[in-house]
């Protein structure tokens, strides 16, 4: 009688175990490539990585990363504010969103979904927005972020297809990526038709969790992509310059083609963004140490965003609890 509940309790644990095993495999693969490169230089992997990091210009790197992290926060908060105004609380101000979005970065250190939950809790307490409707807006933002990455990646891939072919030694990315773009292109009009009620009559469409999709117009989808685009364009510039500071030659065109794909891999539910780690090594086979570089970039970025969250945390707590209690 209780076999089904027992099985359902084991599913999250099995998924977590599988994700950690995959992540361990990713790290092993990258470490193996670093070891091969180190052996060619007559060094141990640790000495090889130490030399790589010692040669970097850390002061200029910090001067690059700190302003970008602040810029990312402001752009991200603006896009979130726009979506909330459209679908949840039309009276909300941009300055109201800043402390909650910033403090959510702290929770995102543990789990990205927990960070989204903080925004949903704020909307429920301050504006009586039902939880599922608030989460619906966060899902729409996430979907548009994926489409933004696909769009920019497609521009980069098809503008310099030869670069992608040269990088497709370990994985046939020159075949995989166009297939992914085609699938996304086919899905987009079906999505719009379905949620506008012109395709099918499934009850799924009427669920509160999908309310933002029912209300969104094609123009609003495009505007969300446009609102979030500065962050990706900034990331392409920042990563290009940062790699140069670490003595890894790369062009903006390469970053335009590769970075959105790497960010998509980072979105996979793997610990330490292991999917992105492997893709860095695949796309830059001559520089396997960029896997370690990506860990440094990501760790600093999420840590500094969390620091921004700490600065806003007192105000976020007042808005979530003190004023509501009053």
Description:
With 326 residues, the protein is an all-alpha fold. The protein has one domain. 80% of the residues lie in helices and 0% in strands. It has helices spanning 3-40, 45-54, 58-87, 94-108, 112-127, 131-159, 161-167, 173-195, 211-215, 218-245, 252-266, 274-283, 290-325. Helix 6 (131-159) crosses helix 7.
Number of helices: 13
Q: β content, as a range? A: under 5%
Largest sheet: none
Number of domains: 1
The ordered string of helix (H) and strand (E) elements is HHHHHHHHHHHHH
Helix-residue proportion = over 70%
Shape, please? globular
Average pLDDT number: 85
What distance lies between the first and last C-alpha atoms, to the nearest angstrom? Answer: 48 Å
- Based on secondary structure, the structural category is mainly alpha
* Secondary structure: number of strands: 0
Radius of gyration, Cα only, in angstroms? 22 Å
Low-pLDDT runs of 5+ residues are none
Please provide a brief summary of the model.
With 326 residues, the protein is mainly α. The protein is 80% helix and 0% strand.
Write the layout of secondary structure elements.
Layout: H1 3-40, H2 45-54, H3 58-87, H4 94-108, H5 112-127, H6 131-159, H7 161-167, H8 173-195, H9 211-215, H10 218-245, H11 252-266, H12 274-283, H13 290-325
Helix pairs in contact: 1-2, 1-12, 3-4, 3-6, 3-10, 3-13, 4-5, 4-13, 5-6, 5-13, 6-7, 6-8, 6-10, 6-11, 10-11, 11-12, 12-13
């Amino acid at each position: 009688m209780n076999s089904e509940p027992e099985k359902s309790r084991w599913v999250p644990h099995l998924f977590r175990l599988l994700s950690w095993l995959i992540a361990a495999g990713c790290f092993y693969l990258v470490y193996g490539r670093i070891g091969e490169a180190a052996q060619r230089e007559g060094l141990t992997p640790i000495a090889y990585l130490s030399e790589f990091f010692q040669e970097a210009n850390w002061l200029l790197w910090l001067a690059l990363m700190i302003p970008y992290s602040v810029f990312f926060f402001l752009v991200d908060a603006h896009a979130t504010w726009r979506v909330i105004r459209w679908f949840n609380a039309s009276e909300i101000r941009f300055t109201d969103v800043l402390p909650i979005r910033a403090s959510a970065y702290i929770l995102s250190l543990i789990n990205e979904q927990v960070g989204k939950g903080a925004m949903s809790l704020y909307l429920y307490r301050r504006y009586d927005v039902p939880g599922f409707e608030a989460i619906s807006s966060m899902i729409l933002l996430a979907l548009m972020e994926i489409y933004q990455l696909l769009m920019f990646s497609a521009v980069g891939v098809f503008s310099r297809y030869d670069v992608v072919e040269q990088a497709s030694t370990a994985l046939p990315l020159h075949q995989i990526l166009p297939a992914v773009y085609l699938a996304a292109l086919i899905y987009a009009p079906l999505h719009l038709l379905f949620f506008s009620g012109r395709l099918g009559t499934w009850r799924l469409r009427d669920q509160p969790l999908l309310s933002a999709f029912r209300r969104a117009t094609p123009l609003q989808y495009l505007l969300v992509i446009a609102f979030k685009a500065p962050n990706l364009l900034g990331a392409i510039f920042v990563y290009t310059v940062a790699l140069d500071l670490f003595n890894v030659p790369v062009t903006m065109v390469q970053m335009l083609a590769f970075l959105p794909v790497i960010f998509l891999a980072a979105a996979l539910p793997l610990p330490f963004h292991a999917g992105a780690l492997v893709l860095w090594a695949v796309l830059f086979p001559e520089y396997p140490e960029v896997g370690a570089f990506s860990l440094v970039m990501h760790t600093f970025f999420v840590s500094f965003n969390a620091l921004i969250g700490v600065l806003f945390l007192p105000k976020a707590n007042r808005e979530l609890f003190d004023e509501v209690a009053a």
